[in-house]
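Posting this for the archive.
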Amino acid sequence: MSTSILDFKVRLQSKIHGKSLNKIQDIEGLIFEAAGNLLGKIDPQETIRISQIENALYDNVFDYVIPPDLKKDKVIDIRPQANRSPSSNFNLAGGEQFDQYKTNNSFAIRNNTGVRTLRISKALTAGLEVEGCDSLTDNGTWTAGGNGTSLEADSLNKITSSGSLRFNISASGATAYIENSTIASIDLSNIKDAGALFVWVYIPSVTIISAVDLRWGSSSSNYYSRSVTSSHDNTSFIVGWNLLRFDWDGSTETGTPDEAAIDYVRVTLTYNGTAVNSVRVDSITAKLGSIFEIEYFSTYLFRSLAGTWKEKPTLDTDLINLDMDAVNLLLYETAELIAQELQGEDSSFDLNYWINKKQDVWKTYQINNKSQAQKKRLDYYRTSSRRR
């Protein structure tokens, strides 16, 4: 049976010599602080959650949306939603090691400018290249339109193969695009409504460019289209290369495109009318995703009466996601913080009491409740197994 915040407060009241909790300026804040202290020491089994990794996994795509309540790198398991085999076991790698080798069935947690992402390497169904964007004429002919100008191949700043397509955007407009209506026809019928198209786009200014639209179809009047305003992993556009994902399911259909004969693509950028140079596009591919789940320890120690998990309690009806032995630990942590705040004649005695009380209880709990989180695996030597 879960303990409510109200019941927890009643227990706290009995620990402070009959003094009122009303003397505490922010009792919910103290409980939240105590919860942070507790989670810094243990990984309670009651906080384990399982969720689907957003947007599925794709071959040669390595960055994904991380659960917002994932506790540090406390991942227990990553697994396919169905048909699991022993070859599906994942290992936690260090960030540098992951980036260097992208070893199959490895994952890492990346922190960058306050944003966390889940990095996963998994060999899956290979994608189909729609257009490599290495040259203006290798596969049909690329042209610029709208307010796009000075289109040329760039052999220096690229993501894959031998080059990318670079162009400028002139002022006093709203959109600029590049398109190719004569690429070699490719059959994407098995990806329709089930997969996604990926495009690498180099954005030189995130204050100028606000959205990117992709059209793919069998002609300039028969196509599917979709617009995005964030990268594949749901992070904001950055200055530099952005991997963009255009889900087929939910795209807009214009005319009667033939998904078995895709030979037309257009990449359009929406901007604020300010000129910007050196936009780049590279590697347009189509991929089928695979559904995977992640099992992890959560930082959300509380939940509402309706079942919504939350980081901090706000109502007396909120519930604590702990069994009784761990609730006692939270009680002792909170009582210690209260003793520090009250600063009455009994505070020194209470403070020492709760510090001593916690020591034996913590030791017993930690012995009997080992964390299931994966430990980081660091290799001292490597063979040439890099995927990309």
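Residues 3-46+306-368 form one domain. The chain has five helices and 23 strands.
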